């Protein structure tokens, strides 16, 4: 049953790419609640994920099947510490996450308990890594072009829009040779910059279809509950209020575009005036400020 949260506050959670060696260590040292999350992660996965977060090596941490549970764990540690210290309200109006961050949102909305979510995310990372091996590809961030122009470029080059992050910042996915062609076209049509992303595959594109069956089977092993507050979906930018909707979303988001700009615009239209980014880095805070300059943003990151 949905709870009445603080309707003007949304929790948002970052995705893959925000990992760095040392993340969460200072929080671990000061917060009992954070230490409990890291302990649960180590036990659930059967290895010292906490040590990998704190000490690396970086090359191992960046691997998809490690980066995803690591970011989830650090984000949940920040969430637990914030609740423990009274920094964040127990129940916001909405939750949302960017790609992987959508799984952290499951914890915040009490759809699944943390040990189950981290097991699920470990499987997701493994499936996406295997899909990347079977259908190699990459991602390219394009700055300074609108969505219509990029749709045309994708049509010409056999690529797909993967993330609409904010006005003038869109990410495309596809085979690497196709991305090289898309990069040239983007520059010809006035892109300010085109930046290859340091990821292992063409996430949020049809090249991830190899992961869909495995993810469907993995989700069937868990009993998801209805969220206590609406979760705004990556693939539709619409609120989800039932477990069945969330299951469909977690499968769909593998191959579909992350509608981050529209998600933020939806939440603002629904009354959100403060966004609390919970997790490593400040990527979402920066995007939200560009999407809706008038809203307040709070970043729950390293204590210092």
Question: What order do the helices and strands come in, and which of them pair?
Answer:
Layout: E1 6-13, H1 25-30, H2 32-45, H3 49-55, H4 58-61, H5 64-84, E2 92-97, H6 101-108, H7 114-134, E3 138-143, H8 147-157, E4 160-166, E5 169-174, H9 176-188, E6 193-196, H10 212-219, E7 231-232, E8 239-240, H11 243-252, H12 260-269, E9 274-278, H13 283-291, E10 296-300
Parallel strand pairs: 1-2, 1-9, 9-10
Antiparallel strand pairs: 3-5, 3-6, 4-5, 7-8
Helix pairs in contact: 2-5, 2-7, 3-5, 5-6, 5-7, 7-10, 8-9, 10-11
Describe the structure using short key phrases.
single chain; 304 residues; alpha/beta; Malonyl-Coenzyme A Acyl Carrier Protein, domain 2; Alpha-Beta Plaits; four-stranded parallel sheet; 10 strands; globular
Quickly name the level 1 CATH class of the largest domain.
Alpha Beta
Mean pLDDT, rounded to whole units?
94
Shape: globular
Record field, number of beta strands: 10
Proportion of beta-strand residues? 15-25%
Determine the N-to-C terminus distance.
Answer: 37 Å
Q: Helical residue percent? A: 40-55%
What does this structure look like?
The chain has helices at 25-30, 32-45, 49-55, 58-61, 64-84, 101-108, 114-134, 147-157, 176-188, 212-219, 243-252, 260-269, 283-291; strands at residues 6-13, 92-97, 138-143, 160-166, 169-174, 193-196, 231-232, 239-240, 274-278, 296-300. By secondary structure, the protein is an alpha/beta fold. It has two domains: 6-133 and 206-300, Malonyl-Coenzyme A Acyl Carrier Protein, domain 2 (3-Layer(aba) Sandwich), CATH 3.40.366.10; 137-196, Malonyl-CoA ACP transacylase, ACP-binding (Alpha-Beta Plaits, 2-Layer Sandwich), CATH 3.30.70.250. Strands 2-1-9-10 form a four-stranded parallel beta sheet. It has a four-stranded antiparallel beta sheet with strand order 4-5-3-6. A two-stranded antiparallel ribbon has the order 7-8. The mean pLDDT is 94.
């Amino acid at each position: 049953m949905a709870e009445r949260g603080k309707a003007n506050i949304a929790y948002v959670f970052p995705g893959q790419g925000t990992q760095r060696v040392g993340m969460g260590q200072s929080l671990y040292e000061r917060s009992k609640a954070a230490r409990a999350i890291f302990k649960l992660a180590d036990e659930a996965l059967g290895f010292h994920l906490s040590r990998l977060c704190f000490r690396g090596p970086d090359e191992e941490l960046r691997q998809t099947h490690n980066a995803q549970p690591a970011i989830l764990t650090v984000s949940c540690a920040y969430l637990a510490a914030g609740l423990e210290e009274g920094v964040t309200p127990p129940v916001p109006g909405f939750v949302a996450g960017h790609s992987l961050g959508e799984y952290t949102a499951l914890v915040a909305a009490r759809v699944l308990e943390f040990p189950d979510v981290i097991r699920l995310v470990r499987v997701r990372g493994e499936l996406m890594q295997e899909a990347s091996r079977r259908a190699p590809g990459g991602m390219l961030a394009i700055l300074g072009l609108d969505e219509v122009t990029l749709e045309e470029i994708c049509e010409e080059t056999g690529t797909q829009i993967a993330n609409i992050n904010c006005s003038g910042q869109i990410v495309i996915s596809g085979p690497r040779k196709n991305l090289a062609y898309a990069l040239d076209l983007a520059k010809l049509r006035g892109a300010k910059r085109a930046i290859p992303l340091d990821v292992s595959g063409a996430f949020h594109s049809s090249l991830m279809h190899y992961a869909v069956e495995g993810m469907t089977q993995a989700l069937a092993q868990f009993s998801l509950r209805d969220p206590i507050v609406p979760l705004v979906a990556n693939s539709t930018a619409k609120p989800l209020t039932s477990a069945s909707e969330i299951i469909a979303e977690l499968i769909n988001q593998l191959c579909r575009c992350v509608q981050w700009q529209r998600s933020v615009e939806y939440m603002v239209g629904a009354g959100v005036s403060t966004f609390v980014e919970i997790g490593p880095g400040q990527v979402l805070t920066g995007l939200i400020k560009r999407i809706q300059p008038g809203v307040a943003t709070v970043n729950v990151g390293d204590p210092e």
